[in-house]
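Exercise 7. Given the encoded structure of a 210-residue chain, write a plausible sequence.
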């Protein structure tokens, strides 16, 4: 690696063990640390409806979920979101907007999985179809209201699945110590949505409103 005369280059800098960066990377043991998997979820809301798939596989078999899936090693989360949306629904994402990462250690029963949710629109709504591991992909009518709860709020959300209206609640609160400034979302009771998707939906609604 060339540099200015007399200047030390990165290839020449050695650590306390006498290794250059290239030598350190070549001998690095990635198994020393736990490596969580990364997924993406795509939240699409249009005309009072939210786009959901019905889970065709475990975990949460038969429950409703956002389109999404695992990030491949050779792609960014943005690319993964666009790919997963297309594979599961046939929709081409536009305006993908990343929102707060969901990383509760126990959020997925399989292993440690961190998900990056996106809010998005599509350029081809009329071409929607179910695919990949989605048993169905469709727009579900939904409504919500917020009521004050101290410094926070309660989200009361209803989703219409066929002839059945399914309601659930998400509590929005704040860290009493003040260390975490952003709101915390916590589902209460049962939800027709898989995993923590009720909490992700409430956060997305807050961001969309803002």
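Solution.
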């Amino acid at each position: 690696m060339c540099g200015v005369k007399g200047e030390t280059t990165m290839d020449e800098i050695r650590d306390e063990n006498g290794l250059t960066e290239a030598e350190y990377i070549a001998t690095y043991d990635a198994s020393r640390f736990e490596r969580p998997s990364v997924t993406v979820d795509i939240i699409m809301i249009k005309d009072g409806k939210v786009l959901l798939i019905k889970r065709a596989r475990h975990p949460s078999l038969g429950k409703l979920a956002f389109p999404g899936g695992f990030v491949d090693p050779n792609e960014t989360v943005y690319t993964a979101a666009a790919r997963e949306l297309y594979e599961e629904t046939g929709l081409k994402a536009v305006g993908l907007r990343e929102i707060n990462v969901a990383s509760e250690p126990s959020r997925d029963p399989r292993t440690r999985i961190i998900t990056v949710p996106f809010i998005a629109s599509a350029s081809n709504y009329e071409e929607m179809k179910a695919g990949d591991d989605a048993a169905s992909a469709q727009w579900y009518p939904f409504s919500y209201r917020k009521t004050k709860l101290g410094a926070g709020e309660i989200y009361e959300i209803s989703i219409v699945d066929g002839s059945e209206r399914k309601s659930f609640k998400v509590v929005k609160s704040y860290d009493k110590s003040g260390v975490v400034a952003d709101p915390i979302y916590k589902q209460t009771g049962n939800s027709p949505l898989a995993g923590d998707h009720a909490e992700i939906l409430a956060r997305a609604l807050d961001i969309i409103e803002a």
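Remark. The chain has a mean pLDDT of 91. Students should compare their own answers with the one above.
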